[in-house]
Amino acid sequence: MFCIRRIFDDVHDRNQNALEQVRTILSTQFIGLSQAKIDRIPDIFRNPFKYDFQSILYIAEGVSTVLGFALLSNEPQMQFSYLDFLATNKNTPGRGIGAALYERVREEASLMHARGLFFECLPDDPKLCRNPGMLKENKARLRFYEMFGARPIDNTGYETPVNPGGDNPPYLVFDNLGQQKPLNVDFARKVVKAILQRKYKSVCSPEYVQAVVKSFRDDPVRIRMPRYVKASDQELHPVLNRLTTIALVVNDRHDIHHVKERGYVEAPVRIRSILEALQRTRLFSAIPPMEFPDSHIVAVHDPAYVRYFKRVTEKMAVGSSVYPYVFPIRNQARPPIELAVRAGYYCIDTFTPLNRNAFLAARRAVDCALTGATKILEGIRLAYALVRPPGHHTEIRSFGGFCYFNNSAIAAQYLSEYGNVAMLDIDYHHGNGQQTIFYARSDVLTVSIHGRPAIAYPYFSGFADERGEGNGIGYNVNYPMPEKMDGIKYIRVLDRALTRIRQFAPRFLIVCLGLDTAKGDPTGSWSLMASDFKEIGGKIGRMHLPTLVVQEGGYKTRSIGSNARAFFEGLWSAMVSDEKAVSKIRSVSNRKSNNPKSQNSEILSER
Ligand SMILES: [Zn+2]
């Protein structure tokens, strides 16, 4: 069991530990690589364009062990990608780790609109590799890449030894990423020049580079015929599209929770309406929910509450509901013995019933939020957990407001093990749940824009002076707003909230998406329109953060779908166009620098 995640920084303990293990794998598997070069790896996070490429590191991780990694360099201007390293931990061989990493690298290269992925591979020709043991390893590696349709470039001088008579000179391997376009010679020459000049500056003389570039004469450049895998099998490796869309995780068991009392607006039709509207776009890729252990839930909720919720609902007949009706607020040390009576011991209102399926549906919603968080850790930019029941009113030991488990907070807790998290709650109602859960912490910033407590549920929290406590002072920010709000006023306060999040500089963003700020919502009093939701999405997308969106409220079923769609269209287009812009700006500024080829530019060469 392993997961692949992208490493975004070398600041957090968990990432530092992973990087240490990456360095160990490098030094044990790439014997010729100097320690100084290995130690420079963290530089790629501090200045990803320092080496004239945008560097991205993926690791395959077991419980706490790095099982393998891939280091990829993107050249956004010339539109190609170069794989510096793909290595697995020799102590845990096989198990598909290399293949999973290579798939991920191909996805990333495709996302960057690369025309091809290039990398070096040692030769499988006995004339070029005289050591039989090494020759066998080289053949195995080339067979592996051939499975994906990646094969050495043929009939060029790329494998000319840098030092005459040198053994084992690498091939240049080309993967067309399933695009089936021939490799144009002019493009190939530019790519080869860039690779040799930037990656191998210290070992390749200008004369050598020129000679190799000139040796590319065939147009299109010839790619070696398959040697290990039947050609028909290789066609089966198109690049998956997971990274080019929003990962959508829907609670497939939400509708078992259906409270049929009149006026219970938190109904299954909400999810159906949103899904119908999203299906009209091509922005989403559905991902099935994975199962996670209860340890994630008790990391934010009182274990006694979690046990109670499970136990009380297990004993209930299907279809019957218990509404909390005794609230022992004066003596919290003495929970009532009778389970049905005890409901009020853990609840903040009288309209959130317990019933048999509430637990099962809420438990599945948690799995969905955690699945979305896992996708973010894997390097997917945007994930959406479309769930009900919602979660943001559930505090450490109390439920309410249609919420039972705080899905967003559980995901935030999980992500916080990998870096700081900002939570932005844009539901009409105050996000009292995550406020309470993270109130004394400075690694999770909680921000909420909502109707002020005098007019809006939950009435007892959401005041501006609730700023956190202890280490958490200043890390909870509330924007209580008046009864009437239109899009213009809303965007103004959203800008303030986003400014605070930018100051915090989180590694991850979680958006608690409530659509009950919409005009005509039965639980709200504001008047946002679809165009406002699009702008809100755009503003959040321009933050350029790995973002998990978790569904909270929103009860006007006639407009909930179109508003959700508008939000995601704004969010996605801002995020994508912004990424292209950032790449361009950084590349241009690099070219203008007086030191275009840093002396470290060959940091990870293996020649
Ligand atoms: Zn709400």
Secondary-structure blueprint:
Elements: E1 3-7, H1 13-29, H2 35-39, H3 43-46, E2 54-61, E3 66-75, E4 80-88, H4 97-111, E5 117-121, H5 132-146, E6 151-152, E7 171-175, H6 185-199, H7 206-214, H8 231-234, E8 246-250, H9 269-278, E9 284-286, H10 295-298, H11 303-314, E10 321-322, H12 339-342, E11 354-355, H13 356-377, E12 382-386, H14 407-415, E13 421-425, H15 432-437, E14 444-451, E15 476-481, H16 487-504, E16 508-513, H17 530-541, E17 547-551, H18 557-592
Parallel strand pairs: 4-5, 8-9, 8-12, 12-17, 13-14, 13-16, 14-15, 16-17
Antiparallel strand pairs: 1-2, 2-3, 3-4, 5-7, 6-7, 10-11
Helix pairs in contact: 6-7, 9-18, 11-13, 13-14, 16-17, 17-18
Bound molecules: zinc ion.
Zinc ion is lined by residues 427-429, 514, 516, 523, 552-553.
Number of helices: 18
For the sheet with most strands, the description reads: 8 strands, parallel
Tally the beta strands: 17
The percentage of residues in β strands lies in 5-15%
Taken from the alpha-carbon principal axes, the silhouette is elongated
List segments where confidence is low: pLDDT < 50 over at least 5 consecutive residues.
581-607
